[in-house]
Amino acid sequence: MTSTLYVDNLIEKTSGNGVHIPGHVIQFHQHRYSNEHTCQSSNAYQDVASSSFTFTPKSNNSKLFIESNVSVRINGDAQGCATRIVVDAVPYDTPVQSHEWYFNFSATGTADYYDRLIKSSYVNNTTTSARTIKLQVSNYNGSTDTRLNFAGRFQTVICVWEIAQ
């Protein structure tokens, strides 16, 4: 036997609680910035300037799917970097090596390389309090710079989907 439910309008029973359907998006937030960040240290993670923002979950039983899309520029040979997403001072998906993104140019002369680095993480959420989300970056080779959003000409985007459980 199959059932069919027709609805024109779905209204929450208790005002402010929302309607939660497991697996569906409760809310979405996008954080964009174009300030340049230069990473010169080797292997040590550092906060990325302008990446920090707060996100307030609507449910205390949800998952946060967080995706960062970062503009990266390196100048030189054998250069790379790694990023990680940090939520309330807890890092997620930290790579073993600080060169999950790497460029090797073996010709004479100077090389400039631009690319986008995409990273995503799931975070189990058990609170409706504001969460602080930010990016951190680690430079593979301290002799050259890794630059995010070079000269402010590019943007980094961090998206958060809160998913009902």
Q: Look at the structure and give the mean pLDDT.
A: 87
Gyration radius, rounded: 20 Å
- Beta strand %: over 45%
CATH topology: Jelly Rolls
CATH architecture descriptor text: Sandwich
The total strand number stands at 12
Total helices: the number is 0
Uncertain residue ranges: none
Structural class: mainly beta
The main β sheet shows up as: 6 strands, antiparallel
- Estimate the helix proportion, in percent: under 10%
Label the overall shape.
elongated
CATH class, named Mainly Beta
Describe the structure.
The chain has one domain: Jelly Rolls (Sandwich), CATH 2.60.120. The chain starts with 24 loop residues before the first strand and ends with a strand. It is mainly beta and 165 residues long. The strands form two sheets. Strands 1, 2, 5, 9, 11 and 12 form a six-stranded antiparallel β-sheet that branches. The model has no long low-confidence stretch (mean pLDDT 87). The protein is elongated. The protein has strands spanning 25-33, 37-39, 46-47, 53-55, 62-75, 79-87, 90-92, 101-103, 112-125, 131-139, 146-148, 156-164. The chain contains no helices and twelve strands.
